[in-house]
Specification:
The complex is a heterodimer of chains A (338) and B (255). By secondary structure, chain A is α+β, with helices and mostly antiparallel strands. Chain A is built from 10 helices and 13 strands. Chain A folds into 3 domains: 6-43 and 134-268, 2-Layer Sandwich (D-amino Acid Aminotransferase, Chain A, domain 1), CATH 3.30.470.20; 47-130, no CATH class; 272-337. In chain A, the strands form 2 sheets. In chain A, strands 11-10-9-8-7-12-13 form a 7-stranded antiparallel sheet. In chain A, a hairpin with a 6-residue loop joins β9 and β10. In chain A, α3 (28-37) crosses α7. Chain A is globular and about 75 Å long. The two termini of chain A are 18 Å apart. Chain B has a domain at 63-238. Chain B contains 13 helices and no strands. Chain B has helices at residues 9-37, 43-52, 63-68, 70-84, 93-104, 108-129, 134-156, 159-162, 167-207, 210-218, 222-235, 242-247, 249-254. The two termini of chain B are 32 Å apart. The chains are: A alpha+beta (338), B mainly alpha (255). Chains A and B meet through α1 and α8 of A and α13 of B. The complex binds adenosine-5'-diphosphate and magnesium ion. Magnesium ion binds at residues 77, 242, 255 of chain A.
Chain lengths: 338, 255
């Protein structure tokens, strides 16, 4: 019960994540639009190239020195190219190689053909964003690459958080399976309290030797606040939010996952199952209390038979009561994060 | 990030070496198949027959039995996936594979189908170079598997061995194997192949066991009805899978 296994996770997702919402998060641009509308900070979009005609008309030379290009329905970072600086006839990739404008056009053609996208599609759009650079507090911990933060949310309640720190061995990728460090974050303080590399607990970053335990993350309150809004914005009851902290723009939600992995439990040394059970129990109790309060209020009013003096105000009150019952500002159970 | 700009030049040499190794393995397996089934009088087949009996003997089960035990195979698959937590290709692929085994015989089924799968696997990298559509790819793969099986049937002069063999299942296995190979690398794909073949083998041995055959003959509906009950129970199981006990050891310690 304490640990959330695949069987229970899949049942949870089947119950809380509607099909349409799951499909929705596979489209990066549309996801960004929805998140932005809900006030969630996301990376700006420089261009969305939807077809060959648009690509032919697009002025690639007008792109800035540093940007990222990716398939709108990509997965596992496939087809992502990151450039950071101009050279004669093109740009310099983060890997050091040169990306000519011709090569960039060819890459867009591959993206448009759907070659780099999720299965089940034979066309896609190319998304171009400014390059995100790691905040100095993160950059000092890693050799290179962009660390990210994963927060699992049940509705707007954050359940568990970790940061993934690239290593030399992971080739700068923030992926635990490729050898990145996973570090568990304490919700109240925003500091790292446990770090894991593969199966082993570590206390320092293996590539930089920077002490990890107790290290504080920048903009932690904003990070949690952004993550909490994603569920409502995307219609996913259970969601894994991936965030990055940009050196100049601060917190940005990079991606939301409708099937978040379970490895975060090993990083935290704790199970998600008991936290989910607790939150769901609290939500049920709250709903029951709200229902009871609602019926009692109705009883006292009919018993007294007071004439409605201001029907407008009464309606407004009733509306508020109903709204409260449905969304009912749910407090973050702080003890969860301990 | 698995974008091609990150592929190292060394990877290509590594892939070639891996392919050569796979081809060598397949050739070894081919030699074993040949030794088992070659009908010309040679000492190897003679010894084999003396030791394990005729390798091409059929199961000789009634057609009705194959149908009745399908749900039993499905139950095994459900159990393996949600209680043991082993990954196999596709949902009911091991069950279909086991049915294929039942049609071809206890030894001939696994051996011949594995040979066909290996030939398909070796052909995939070349087919990928042609950048076919998915149906085109699968269709070609089916034809290749049929050619391989046909060649074997002719060589060993046993047309019955492969006549009813569900070729499409083999082609689908090969395709799924390739997808997983591309997505998760050779280690995981090989592990899943072994699990798929192993579960198929277990299903074959279970549903062809004499007590099961007797039960199916005496009370035909017992097996399907019992399977329904079992699968409803297994389908509602939400506890940890056996494989997860090891996977989440770190999480359990802290909890
Ligand atoms: N704008 C960007 N700036 C810098 N790196 C980026 C940017 N967008 C994506 N990346 C890198 O590429 C990886 C994959 O991008 P993501 O948007 O998560 O797509 P996917 O769905 O393919 O995982 C990220 O983890 C990050 O390291
Ligand atoms: Mg990603």
């Amino acid at each position: 019960m304490a640990i959330l296994g695949m069987n229970r996770r899949n049942a949870l997702i089947a119950r809380l994540n509607p099909r349409e919402a799951i499909k929705g998060v596979n489209q990066k641009f549309e996801t960004k639009q929805r998140l932005a509308a809900a006030g969630v900070p996301v990376p700006p979009t420089l261009a969305l190239i939807g077809d060959e005609a648009k690509s032919a008309a697009f002025d690639y030379a007008s792109l800035p020195d540093a940007f990222a290009i990716k398939p709108n329905r990509g997965r596992r970072g496939e087809g992502v190219i990151l450039v950071d600086g101009r050279v004669k006839g093109g740009w310099r990739k983060l890997s050091g190689e040169v990306l000519t404008e011709k090569a960039l056009r060819a890459h867009v053609t591959r993206i448009l053909a759907g070659e780099l996208s999720l299965e089940g599609g034979n066309s896609d759009a190319a998304l171009i964003e400014p390059l995100i650079r790691a905040h100095p507090d993160f950059a000092r911990m890693v050799p290179f690459g962009l660390p990210d933060i994963r927060i699992i949310c049940l509705g707007d309640v954050p359940l568990m958080a970790m940061t993934r720190l690239p290593t030399q061995e992971s080739g700068g990728r923030a992926n635990l399976h490729q050898g990145a460090v996973g570090a568990a974050i304490d919700f109240r303080s925003g500091t790292i309290f446990r770090a894991v590399l593969g199966q082993d607990e570590v206390f320092e970053h293996p590539s930089t030797n920077v002490a990890l335990i107790g290290a504080g993350l920048p903009f932690w309150r904003e990070t949690v606040a952004a993550a909490r809004r994603c569920s409502g914005a995307l219609g996913l009851g259970y969601v894994g939010v991936d965030l990055v902290i940009d050196a100049t723009r601060g917190v940005q939600v990079l991606e939301c996952n409708a099937y978040p992995g379970l490895e975060i439990q090993n990083v935290n040394g704790a199970g998600l199952g008991s936290r989910i059970a607790l939150v769901e129990r609290l939500q049920r109790e709250r709903a029951r209390a709200a229902r009871r309060a609602g019926t009692e209020a109705a009883h006292s009013r009919t018993a007294g038979m007071r004439p409605v003096k201001d029907p407008r105000a009464a309606l407004r009150d009733a509306g508020r009561r109903i709204a409260d019952r449905v969304t009912g500002a749910f407090l973050l159970p702080v003890s969860l994060a301990a | 990030m698995r974008s091609d700009d990150l592929t190292l030049p060394g990877d290509i040499a590594l892939q070639r070496a891996g392919y050569a190794l796979a081809a060598a393995l397949a050739a070894t397996f081919g030699a074993i198949v040949w030794a088992l089934f070659d009908r010309s009088d040679n000492i190897v087949t003679g010894t084999v027959i003396a030791m394990i009996g005729d390798p091409s003997r059929p199961w000789n089960l009634p057609g009705m039995h194959l149908l009745l035990v399908m749900p039993v195979g499905a139950s095994v698959v459900v159990f393996v996936r949600s209680v043991l937590g082993w990954k196999t290709f596709g949902l009911f692929t091991p069950m279909l594979l086991a049915l294929a085994y039942l049609q071809s015989g206890p030894i001939a089924g696994p051996v011949i189908s594995t040979a066909a799968i290996m030939i398909g696997m070796l052909a995939v990298p070349f087919l990928k170079l042609l950048s076919l559509s998915r149906v085109g790819f699968l269709g070609t793969l089916i034809a290749i598997v049929v050619s391989a099986l046909g060649a074997m049937a002719l060589e060993f002069d046993q047309p019955a061995l492969v006549s009813a063999f569900p070729v499409v299942v083999t082609a689908l296995i090969v395709e799924r194997w390739w997808n997983d190979y591309e997505a998760d690398g050779p280690k995981k794909a090989v592990r899943m192949t072994i699990a798929t073949l192993g579960v198929a083998l277990a299903i074959q041995l279970l549903v062809a066991a004499p007590p099961v055959v007797r039960l199916a003959a005496e009370v035909p509906l017992a097996l399907p009805l019992a399977s329904i009950a079992l699968m409803i129970v297994l389908g509602r199981y939400q506890g940890l899978r056996l494989s997860e006990l090891a996977r989440f050891r770190a999480a359990q310690q802290g909890a």
